[in-house]
């Protein structure tokens, strides 16, 4: 679902935007418009992957965009290891199926050597409802376990306060 708040400040403090769940590429477009120079996006569906590969092929060729097809629970740990190896700070946009992959995605980020990543989590409105196994309090505790000093706010997505933004204290 969409990011509906200004993320340009995040592009100033991160080297790269990493998205779980590409769908039709709206998150990619938003990240590039905000000033991110590098984007990695992971998508499970072959159909969505092929569509976005067709739409954004030129960016892939120019090395601005990396599209990965597969399960982010499997692929995100590898992406995080690569970021660690390069010493890169990321903004993570966690927007795939929360019921199955939100906690594994947070685990992958928690395993990073870097504690300065920015984390955006979509769809708070469905936590404990359409995503019954996802508990907002648990999500908050996991974010604090990654970085106890995170500034955590709620931002505009498909509705007000639908996106969690966790960012290192300034
Ligand atoms: C809400 S949409 C993403 C919207 C997109 N991030 C945006 O900003 O417009 C969720 C996407 O996650 C994908 N998805 C679901 N489970 C996944 C998984 N385990 N790994 C990667 N992608 C997954 C779905 O196929 C779908 O395209």
Describe the structure.
The chain has 170 residues and is an alpha/beta fold. It has a single domain, classed as 3-Layer(aba) Sandwich (Rossmann fold). It contains 7 helices and 7 strands. Strand 4 (90-94), helix 6 (98-110) and strand 5 (118-121) form a beta-alpha-beta unit. Helix 5 packs parallel to helix 6 and helix 6 runs parallel beside helix 7. It starts with 7 loop residues before the first helix and ends with a strand. The mean pLDDT is 97. The structure holds S-adenosylmethionine.
Relative helix content: 40-55%
Provide the domain count: 1
CATH superfamily: Vaccinia Virus protein VP39
Instruction: Tell me the distance between the termini.
Output: 28 Å
The order of strands across the largest sheet is: 3-2-1-4-5-7-6
What is the compact description of this entry?
The chain is an alpha/beta fold and 170 residues long. It is built from seven helices and seven strands, in the order αβαβααβαβαβαββ.
What descriptors fit this protein?
170 residues, alpha/beta, Rossmann fold, seven-stranded mixed sheet, 7 strands, globular, binds S-adenosylmethionine
Secondary structure elements and their pairing?
Layout lengths: L7 H6 L2 E5 L5 H9 L4 E5 L2 H10 L1 H5 L3 E5 L2 H15 L3 E5 L3 H13 L7 E4 L14 H11 L4 E5 L7 E5 L3
Parallel strand pairs: 1-2, 1-4, 2-3, 4-5
Antiparallel strand pairs: 5-7, 6-7
Helix pairs in contact: 5-6, 6-7
Bound molecules: S-adenosylmethionine (SAM).
